[in-house]
Amino acid sequence: MAQENKMDEIKISLDAGGADGEVSVVRVDGVVDTITSSELEKVMNSLMDQSRYNIVVDLGGVDYISSAGWGIFISNIREIRQHEGDLKLAGMIPNVYEIYELLEFDSILRAFENVEKAKSDFNIARHSVKQGEKSPEVKTSAEIIDEEEVEAQAVEPISEHELEEKSADSGTEDRPAADSEDQRILDLAAEDPFLSIREMKKILNSEAGDHPRLGWWRIRGILKKHDILSRKKRFRFARKK
Residue of 1, 76, 78, 198 with fewest CB within 10 Å of its CB? Predict the structure, then answer.
């Protein structure tokens, strides 16, 4: 029988699948954020404590995964593969899959359309090894997260209003930012590294109060100053918090 663990915004069920039940299927529904990710981590740790290293995580019911959630998968994959197992993701919705690709986790973890295809891949991989075929090279978490990142020069499309802000705020990328401005942006980047600059601007200005309002280029300049302009770098920054 499947075990269930429920919280306000997450439900996790655990069941066995595949031949002889050697594949553990973890079904997750809800939001995997800083608070709820601890429940997922408990389940993953429990599987490894039981030496169950063939794992499929069904994300079909997940609307959002924060940096803390992705970090669970990345931090566990090395131990899992050291024990000749693997962790595969299944059923991601487009918004979640976009982040998965953006952070280049497709070089670390394989993703499948559904659970059945993910489970079948374990059998295919096992058969290939028996036939003496060389398993495909997959980068480890350390290799992909720590490798030198080439910073993209292009910026997201901006509106005419934001171009006007650039003109009005000319040169602000190079000027020292007020400590409070830096801290507001760093806190937001740590809380949710996947936000776009435009989304950051909206949130920061809605909470501005007596603080001066921040323009798109100003926020971009502060992110660049702290070397967290890309979402990938903000993810690494958030993981250290």
Answer: 1
Query: Cα torsion at 18, 60, 11, 43 (round to 10°)?
Result: 50
Task: Give the rounded distance of the alpha carbon of 207 from its chain centre.
Answer: 26
Nearest-Å Rg of the Cα atoms of the chain is 21
CA distances from 27 to 57, 109, 116, 141 (A): 6, 17, 13, 23
Of 149, 132, 221, the C-alpha closest to 185 is 221
Rounded Cα–Cα distance for residues 89 and 74 (Å): 12
Query: Each residue of 180-202: pLDDT tens digit?
Result: 889 999 999 998 888 888 888 88
Q: Residue 149 above 70 pLDDT?
A: no
Structure tokens at 159: 């509106």
User: What are the structure tokens assigned to 160, written together?
Assistant: 């005419």
Bridge partners for 29 per DSSP: 11, 61
Other C-beta atoms within 10 Å of 45: how many?
A: 12
Phi/psi at 163 (nearest 5 deg)?
-65, -35
Question: CB-based contacts of 192: which residues, under 8 Å, 6+ apart?
Answer: 66, 67, 238
**pLDDT for 30 beyond 60:** yes
- What is the residue extent of each domain of the chain? 3-146, 160-239
Q: Nearest-CA neighbor of 17 among 136, 127, 121, 130? A: 121
The CATH class given to the 3-146 domain equals alpha beta
pLDDT digits (tens, 9 = 90+) for 68-99: 889 888 888 888 998 989 999 999 999 899 88
Of the candidates 240, 241, 236, which has an alpha carbon nearest to the alpha carbon of residue 103?
Answer: 236
